[in-house]
Write a structure and sequence with these properties.
With 92 residues, this protein is mainly α. It has a domain of 59 residues. Helix content is 80%, strand content 0%.
């Protein structure tokens, strides 16, 4: 009989954090990492049931949101600079 593979708690936690921060589906992440389908859902539930893990998952989401907000702001600034540069070149 084939023996089930054991995963460390750190691996599970990091994988769930990757799932959340990547925005990819559970099946896609499972395929990327060579994990059985559905295992990430189970790991996420286990971590959600732990008190501290829920807070750390929220921290991951908050950090990701902050990163994306910074990136949007940066892209808006770049867009505005390009608009101004295009306006200057069109006048001459």
């Amino acid at each position: 009989m084939k023996r089930r593979k054991q995963y460390t708690p750190d691996f599970k936690r990091e994988t769930v954090q990757y799932l959340i921060s990547s925005g990819k589906s559970q099946n896609m992440v499972c395929q990327e990492l060579g994990l059985p389908n559905g295992i990430l859902g189970r790991w996420k539930k286990e971590l959600d049931q732990e008190g501290n893990a829920n807070e750390s998952l929220q921290d991951v989401r908050d950090k990701r949101i902050q990163e994306l907000e910074r990136e949007v702001q940066n892209l808006k600034q770049q867009r505005d600079i390009l608009k101004k540069a295009m306006g200057i070149t069109l006048i001459h």
